[in-house]
């Protein structure tokens, strides 16, 4: 009897020791299983919600001002700005959904406070806005490439009204295809209890693979094309300026200055557009990495703030760097619309510009 008790005690002690060693090894290897992580710290959620609120206010205001600026001034009625407005609409739609994200994030519930249908719409808008934004960046890059590297007549021959319309339609067709893909596949487009927001959550591993394939092929391919366009432009500008310096001496600077001034304006606009896409890539890269790497889920809510910022920061860049937008934004903010350069027919109608001009004569 004593021998049996001794064996049982020895077996139990051995089992406990093996369990302890296994637990220690799992802890050292970072594989300890525990409850799934949930973004349930209300203090952190309030911080993220406050940041998103600031982005939503400035993003909506800035994107609306950008569209209104293009409408009010003929100076901004350019081919490039057609694509800029397209980009602004995509960014504005994303900013418009942020209030619903904020409401769910600060709500002290497990299922959110907005209706399921609206939550689904907010989730789908993330697909729609992202796809529309990335194609708009590609269209802007292609426009800038053609404007800088090709003669003016070839540029206008390429970007006719018909082709511009086709480009814009294709951009939104791609955005709608992204939404349709989410609907017809097994993608959860409801409320995410992990992050406490309306967020697409891929539950089927096969669907996850397809989504990852799309993101790393089509979307990445589009971004690579954007970078190729800007790289080709910078190489062209460098060689062009080097050629001018070699061809003309100091005694012939008048002709050089005229041509350089004309080119410098387009180069400045191009640099501004490159800054926009560079900031966009910097903002979305951490977001995409967190979607791919599950172990980074704890920082995902903060990374999502940078993604939201990518859709709101463009108007600030236009006001800071773009010479034409800056000239129009200033009188708009000062509520002095009569001082907007090259007023459009719409602005003339509402400000009575023509009637004042007729009275002067």
Whole-Å distance between the termini?
123 Å
Strand content: under 5%
**DSSP strand tally:** 4
Order of helices and strands: HHHHHHHEEEEHHHHHHH
Low-confidence stretches: 1-32, 258-262
Portion of residues in helices?
A: over 70%
Secondary-structure content class: mainly alpha
Could you explain the architecture of this structure?
By secondary structure, the protein is mostly helical. It contains 14 helices and 4 strands. It has helices at about 1-30, 40-70, 80-95, 100-105, 115-150, 150-160, 160-185, 205-245, 255-290, 300-310, 315-320, 325-335, 345-350, 355-360, and strands spanning about 185-190, 190, 195-200, 200. It has a two-stranded antiparallel sheet with strand order 1-4. A two-stranded antiparallel ribbon has the order 2-3. A hairpin with a 4-residue loop joins β2 and β3 (about 195-200). α5 packs antiparallel against α9, α8 packs antiparallel against α9 and α11 packs across α12. The protein is globular. The N and C termini lie far apart (about 125 Å).
């Amino acid at each position: 009897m004593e021998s049996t008790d001794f064996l049982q005690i020895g077996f139990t002690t051995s089992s406990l020791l093996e369990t302890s060693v296994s637990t220690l090894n799992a802890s050292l290897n970072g594989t300890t299983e525990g409850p799934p992580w949930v973004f349930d710290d209300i203090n952190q959620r309030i911080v993220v919600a406050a940041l998103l609120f600031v982005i939503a206010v400035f993003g909506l205001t800035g994107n609306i001002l950008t569209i209104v600026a293009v409408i009010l001034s003929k100076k901004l009625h350019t081919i490039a700005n057609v694509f800029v407005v397209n980009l602004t609409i995509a960014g504005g739609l994303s900013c418009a959904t942020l209030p619903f994200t904020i409401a769910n994030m600060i709500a002290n519930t497990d299922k959110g406070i907005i209706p399921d249908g609206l939550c689904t719409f907010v989730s789908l808008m993330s697909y729609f806005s992202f796809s529309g934004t990335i194609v708009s960046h590609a269209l802007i890059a292609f426009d800038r490439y053609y404007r800088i590297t090709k003669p003016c007549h070839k540029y206008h021959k390429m970007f006719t009204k018909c082709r511009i319309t086709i480009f814009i339609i294709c951009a939104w067709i791609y955005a709608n295809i992204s939404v349709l893909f989410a609907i017809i596949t097994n993608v959860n487009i409801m409320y995410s209890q992990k992050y406490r927001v309306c967020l697409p959550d891929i539950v089927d591993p096969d669907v996850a693979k397809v989504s990852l394939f799309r993101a790393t092929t089509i979307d990445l391919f589009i971004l690579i094309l954007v970078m190729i366009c800007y790289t080709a432009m910078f190489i062209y500008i460098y060689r062009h300026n080097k050629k001018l310096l070699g061809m003309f001496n100091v005694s012939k600077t008048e002709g050089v200055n005229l041509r350089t001034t004309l080119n410098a304006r387009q180069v400045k606009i191009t640099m501004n557009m490159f800054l926009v896409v560079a900031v966009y890539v910097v903002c979305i890269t951490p977001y995409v990495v967190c979607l791919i790497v599950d172990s980074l889920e704890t920082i995902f809510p903060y990374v999502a703030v940078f993604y939201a910022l990518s859709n709101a920061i463009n108007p600030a860049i236009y006001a800071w760097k773009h010479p034409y937008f800056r000239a129009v934004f200033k009188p708009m903010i000062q509520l002095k619309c009569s001082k907007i350069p090259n007023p459009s027919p719409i602005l003339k109608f509402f400000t009575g510009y023509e009637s004042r001009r007729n009275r002067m004569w």
